[in-house]
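INFO batch 0412 | record 1 of 1 | parsing
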Amino acid sequence: MDTMLKHYTRLAFIRTGRDKDLDRYLEYCHRTSQRFGLRLEEITGSVALVQKMIFGPWDEEFVLVQPGPEIPYEEWFRDPGPQVSSSSSVDLK
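INFO prediction complete | emitting tokens
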């Protein structure tokens, strides 16, 4: 585990406004951050990106890739061309 976390400096707890069992999760994060020598940070955020990932629309915040060949590293840095609009249908079979 030390090797996997050796470049980490913090553990972030993202407050999403869903406070069910908040104290339990904060305590777990506190213990975990101490165990691995990480700084614990609380960040205000939301679940909006996760909801969009599941339900759409898949707009410019997402890279849509059809199943098939490997995507070379260089592809992440090229001009993406036309963007998929929220009204476009995308075949993700």
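INFO post-check: The radius of gyration is 19 Å.
INFO record closed
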